[in-house]
Amino acid sequence: MNQDLKALLQNQEEQLLRPEIRTSKEALNQLLAADFFEFGSSGRVFRGEEIDEKGIGAVDMQLSDFEIKSLAPDVVLATYRIFNVEQKQSSLRSSIWKFQNNRWQLVFHQGTKTI
Fold first, then answer.
1. pTM score, two decimals?
2. Structural contact between residues 25 and 32, judged by C-beta atoms closer than 8 angstroms
3. pLDDT of residue 25
4. How far apart are CA 64 and CA 16, in angstroms?
5. Collapsed DSSP state (helix, strand, coil) of residue 79
6. What's the confidence (pLDDT) of residue 36?
7. pLDDT given at position 49
8. Which H, E and C letters describe 89-104, residue by residue?
9. Residues β-bridged to residue 63
10. CA 26, CA 52: separation in Å to the nearest integer?
11. Residues of the chain where predicted confidence (pLDDT) is lower than 70
12. Cα dist. 84→63, 72, 81, 87, 109 in Å?
């Protein structure tokens, strides 16, 4: 797998953790596909159209163990770990990125809490 693509997608995942991105509907709309949806680690299902002007809220999280796997020429699965500093809780994450609209956009995300 292309290391440049891996670095790009890891950077985009890390952007999604930054407070200034998470609290900006405009910035989120650049990274998230129009039909984005998520199965959150809370068990909640979240859809992109639910994002309001305040975004999705700021949370202090740290990303590690980032890997990608090609699913199709324009579709990539990303897997990684997140540590939520405030909750002192780790989770496993998976994201599906698709190249569309001349950029990589997140179409699906899932978080699963670890023990």
1. 0.88
2. no
3. 82
4. 14
5. strand
6. 94
7. 74
8. EEEEEEEEEEEECCEE
9. 82
10. 10
11. 1, 52-58
12. 9, 31, 10, 6, 16
**What is the token pair recorded at 44?**
């909640």
Q: What does the block give as tokens for 94? A: 């998976």
Instruction: Compute the distance between CA of residue 67 and CA of residue 24 in angstroms, rounded to an integer.
Output: 27
The one-letter amino acid code at 52 reads D
Query: pLDDT value at position 12?
Result: 97
Distance separating the N- and C-terminal Cα atoms of the chain: 31
Residue at 25: amino acid letter: K
**In 3-state terms, what secondary structure has residue 22?**
helix
Measured CA to CA, the distance from residue 73 to residue 91 in angstroms comes to: 28
* Predicted local confidence at residue 37, as pLDDT: 92
The predicted pLDDT at position 58 comes to 64
How many helices (H) and strands (E) in the chain? 3, 6
